[in-house]
Amino acid sequence: MSAHKKHLTRRRVLGASAIGVAATGAAVAGGTGLLGTASASAATFGYRDDGANYVVDTGAFLVFKVSKSTGDLTSLVYRGKEYEGYGGKHSHVESGLGASTVSVRQSGATILIKVVHGPVTQWYAARSGQNNVYLWTNKADASFTATRYIVRVKSGMFPNTGSDAWDSTKDTIIEAGDVWRAPDGTTHSKHYSGKRTIDYDQVGFTTGSVGLWLVRSNHEKASGGPFYRSLLRHSNEGGAGLYEILHYNEAQTEAERFGLQGPYVIAFTDGGAPSAALAHDRLDTSWVDGLGITGWVGRVGRGQVAGVGLKGMDPKYAYTVGFANRDAQYWARATAGTGAFTCPGMLPGTYTLTVYKNELAVHTQTVKVSAGETTSLHTLAVTGDPSTAATVWRLGDWDGTPGEFKNAKLMTYAHPSDARAAKWTGNVTIGGGSEAASFPAYLWKDVNDGVLVYFKLTRAQAAAAHTLRIGVTDAFSGGRPRVTVNDWVSAVPASPAQPTTRSLTTGSYRGNNHTFTFNVPSSVWKTDVNQYNVLKINVVSGSGDGAYLSAGTSFDCVDLLT
């Protein structure tokens, strides 16, 4: 038989055991089970060339097409219904690679399609009997913009609901062409996922009987760390999209990384979430090792770090241990109580290890990872937590987020002008109750500048100089705090390094945590213990536009040290 005829041969799926499922003990019910596998009679496995596309039948209920000229994913037919494409566009890296070299081959129970366009190589794979498409993106340099893979979904296939959904026939654009206000005053945008990278394994849509999901990769070649917030999905009356972020510049704190990212997985289900076995930290990728995917490093070429625990944890917070260098990033959740952690599947190299109390870095050191080995660490002492300092008063807490402050949680999935937001103005009196909840999470030059904090001091406290600390999590257009205490005015502090794009209006408070310190002399304080001292916080900057795009900043904590 010729090689061409061999490629066109279709293979009958013999059942779950034929695709390596029976050994796991997974049940097959309702047409899908482990990894989206199908019943034995669903279809045949193979591919064909229709002239314009390579057409892949997964041997389950999914048939997909990849363009032979561009490498776009041009069709996703599940149970006989087309789901792919909207607005005359298909699914692809960024806005499409354009003319590319596309090839296909079958290796046993895997069909692999390779797309080459300059510095970018895109891979698609199908596994026999699975309703999944496995994808990898390898970007060699920055000469071609590749920040995402987008799965475009036809309109009307799924409910158009959520903070990341809008209807352009009824809603009004209020910012930059991508933030919308509905008639009820709620705001919606593709930016408003409300999730950090560490918080999700997959994102998708479901009707209750059909689900279409994008299961993320481990993001080892992405940027921004575990708490980065980015595009996950969007929908409107014209269609919908699911995103795998390769590198996104908005609110970004790290340089772009290059190399192979994946696999990430397009998965169809009978309405529920995809199998947990598809999650990046559980997925069996041993079948990938022999496929020849450029840049692929299998399990044997990776190492791990294991830590006994953390000393000095605050039990009110979750702790995360992150690892980063110029080539890769990883993270692991620390066990509550002990702080023990294990981070497997790491590329060899030397990393900066950072311990986070919620999102605040409280310990750093270096660690080396070697292939096939476990780097064991003794208990790490958390010594960099600013919350341990004694204070006269404190607003919020040092955890790297504005979470305790007014409107903070809403701002991860809404615009500051949203009808659900409490008024951004309003002053705070220490000892008045609910101080943190009354203090604004964000401060803008044109919106709520000059917030006031009233507080009293004892005679002993008023006789001493004190240090005022203002912790911020991010800033827009160089916004930073300048303070006035009674009649004393501080100098204008230098602007720390922060992302240069929108952030506070696009669902992210995450930038570079920074602490401003102001040394207030004793002569400033009121000597009458019954009189209030007044702290005024202004935003200073020579940049910015108007309203919520004026210079601004987001708060982590404000306190006065003893």
Low-confidence residue ranges: 1-34
Mean pLDDT across residues: 93
What is the overall silhouette?
A: globular
Q: What strand line-up does the widest sheet have?
A: 8-9-10-11-20-17-16
Biggest beta sheet attributes:
7 strands, antiparallel
Q: Can you count the helices?
A: 3
Rounded radius of gyration (Å):
27 Å
The end-to-end span amounts to: 85 Å
What can you tell me about this protein's structure?
The structure is a single chain. By secondary structure, the chain is an all-beta fold. Helices cover 2% and strands 39% of the residues. The strands form nine sheets. The protein has a seven-stranded antiparallel beta sheet, with no helix packed on it. β3 (53-58) and β4 (62-67) form a beta hairpin. Residues 1-34 have low confidence and may be disordered.
Short description:
With 562 residues, this protein is an all-beta fold.
